């Protein structure tokens, strides 16, 4: 797994969305035992912090030291630099394994094998992501063109797994459940443009060309957006299963 998010770690911590309470309520309803949880690809620790309110201990791993440096310290969270596919976690130790907006970057077979190794019998595994943001009919075509045309050569191919909600990524677990959620925020045009700067494709473009591609649409987007805050909507998809045995 390549590190695609260290360069924008501070922007990521500030401008990326968090997840709705309903998502956590859904996965906790399937996880009656609250001993240990593993938040894989934790980034700046936003999921780990929520899980720490419900579990005795949370192990949060990521390959990015820069991302982990943004994570809040909690007495029952252990942050470790580790790839998703090979961790220092003890076998048969986890009651819950979570991955938010990251499983499309993994070696799926190796990660699923690691999940089975560290999961206690009956553990819950939950993977989720969120699709392209929606704002308003006057803005959405501009955003879609930037995402799917201007930035297309700079997205890793793995990114397109988000568009079909992980349908092509193996999920070999039992009692599988699916759920949909919606994240709604009020953002200014400036905030939205900084959110775009957290995209891995934008960072890749800037490294290759030495300029910020967000500036290609900044003036037009700002004019269409206006001075007011607008509601932005992120569709969140989740799949959940149970790890019954090795």
Automatic annotation (TrEMBL):
Protein family (similarity comment): Belongs to the methyltransferase superfamily.
Keyword Amino-acid biosynthesis: no
Signal peptide positions (record): none
One Gene Ontology biological process: methylation
GO MF annotation list: methyltransferase activity
Domain called Methyltransferase type: residue spans: 39-125
Name of the protein this chain belongs to: Class I SAM-dependent methyltransferase
Sorted UniProt keywords: Methyltransferase, Transferase
Organism whose genome encodes this protein: Hymenobacter volaticus
CDD domains in alphabetical order: AdoMet_MTases
InterPro entries per the UniProt record, alphabetical: Diverse_substrate_MTase (IPR051052), Methyltransf_11 (IPR013216), SAM-dependent_MTases_sf (IPR029063)
